[in-house]
Amino acid sequence: MSEDRNDPETGAAAPRRRGWARAACGALSGVIAGFCALAFAELVAAVVRPEAGPVAAVGGAVIDRTPPALKDFAVRNFGTNDKLVLELGILALLALFAVAVGLLALRHRLPGAAAVLVFGAVGAAAAIGRPEGRVSDALPSVLGAVVAAGVLYLLAGRLSRATASSPGRAAAGAFDRRGFVIAASAAAAASAGAGLLGRQLTSAVQAGAAASRRDLVLPVPDSPAPAVPAGADLGIRGLGPFVTPNKDFYRIDTALVVPRLDAGEWRLRIHGTGVARPVTLSFRDLLRREIVERDITLTCVSNEVGGPYVGNARWIGVRLADLLREAGVRPPSEGGRADQIVARSVDGMTIGTPVEDVMDGRDALLALGMNGEPLPFEHGFPVRMVVPGLYGYVSACKWIKDIELTTFDAYDAYWVRRSWSPRAPIKTQSRIDTPRPFSSPKAGTVPVAGVAWAQHRGITRVEVRVDDGPWHPARLAAQDGRDTWRQWVWEWPATPGSHTLEVRATDRTGAVQTGRRVGTVPDGATGRHTVVVDVT
Q1: pLDDT above 80 (res 13)
Q2: Which H/E stretch holds residue 530?
Q3: Are 29 and 22 within 8 A, CB to CB?
Q4: Which pLDDT band, with edges at 50, 70 and 90, does 174 fall under?
Q5: CA separation for the pair 46, 205 (Å, rounded)
C-alpha cells in the first residue's frame, strides 16, 4: 500500500507542518506572556502610581538619555506625537523580545521563562533610575515579569506534551493542542481583566484630580489684562488666530504619563540659598493673593525657523517675584546670593531660570488658568510657571512642586546636562503662515501674512521680499503688548511663475532678525523663514 502524502497524519510533510504549528504557538506563548506582563504591571502601577508602569518608565529613561540632536529630530518629524511614536516603538521591541523568549522556551522551558525576568529587571531599573524614582516604582515591572514568567512556563509545558492519541510523537511536533488553547485563552482573559481593572483603579485614583479641576472657579483677577486692541487679529484666512485655543496650544515635554494632581493636595515649597524665610504654599494660599491676568506668548526652544511650537494665551496667576521677595530673596543686582531658580516638577523635570529675569519687573507668573479656564492637565494643572521672554526649557515648569534658589555654578538643570544653554532669551523670529509652502495662488494681489515675536521686547517692523529682491514693509496688526506675538500682512502683486517669499522682523531694541541659519541646539534656532510658491 502506498503512503498518502496528503494525509495530515501520515504524509512526510505532516511532521513539518506540526513543527511549524508548534513554533507558531511558541511565538504566541511569548506574546501572551508579554501581554500578561504589561497588564499585571498596569494593575500594580495603579496602586503604586501610573508613572511607575514599565512602558512609561522605560520610555522616560529613553527620553532622559536621548541626545539633543535625536530629540530635535523626533520633535521636528513627529511633533507632539513624538511620545506616541516612542511608546509604539517600545511595544514593538517588547513584542519581538516576547516572540524570541517564546521560541526559546520551546527548547529550554525553564531558561525561556526565566528570560522574561530580564524584562522586569529593565523596567525596574528604569523606574528607580528616573529623577523622581523611588524603590516602590520597581514593583509593577517586577511583579508583571514574575506573572509573565509563570504563564510562559505553563504554556511551554503544554507545547512540549504529546497528545494521548499520538504517544511518542512529541519529537515530531505533536503537542497538547487542546490544553494549549485552554491555557492560552485563560491567560489572555486573565490579562485582559487585570488590564481593565488597572485602568479602572487608575481612573478612580485620578477622579479626585479631575473633580478638583472641574469644580475650580477661577477668581476675578485683581490686575486684569488690558483688552486686546481692535486690529490685533487681522482675520486673514490661513493666518492663525491671535489667541491660540487651549486644544491647539503646542505641548512639548518629557512626560509619557500626564501627571494628574488634585489641587486640594498640591503644595509648593520655596527654599534654598538666600531664602530667609522658607515657605510651603497650598493652592488655596495662592488664591488668597493678588491675582494677575496677562497675555503672554510662549515659545519652545525646539521650534525650527518657521515652526509651529509657539502660541499665545491669556494666563491668570500670581506674580512669582512677590513670593520670592516675601521669602527674603533678592536678585543678584541687589546683592542676592542666588542667581538661579531651580523649579522641580512632580514628574522629575528640573528647569533652571535666572533669578534676575524673574525679578526684573516682567510678569513672571505661577499660572493657575489659561484662556479663561483652569490649566488643562497637559499644560500643567494645577500650577505652572510662565516667564515672558525665555524659552520654555528655562522658564515654563509644568506641574511644579518645588522652587529651590541656587546658583548656575552649583547646579545644572535637566536640559543643561544635555548640552543646552543654561540661559536662553527668546530670539527675534517671524513666520509666514499664508500662502502655504508649494501652494499655487493665482496671479494678482496675494496677501502674504504671518506672525512675528520677540517676547519682552516687542516687534516694531516686519519686511517681506520676493526672490532676493528689495525688502517691502508689511502692515503690522495692533500691538497687544511686548510679551505677545504680532500679526502682519503684505499685499503682494504676484506674477506667474515660481517665487520664493522671505520674511524678517525687527524688535524694539532695533535688532534685525538674522539670516544666518543655526539649529535649535544650544539656545534656539536662527534664520529667516522662506516659502516657495507657484503662482498660476
Answers
A1: no
A2: strand 530-535
A3: no
A4: low
A5: 8
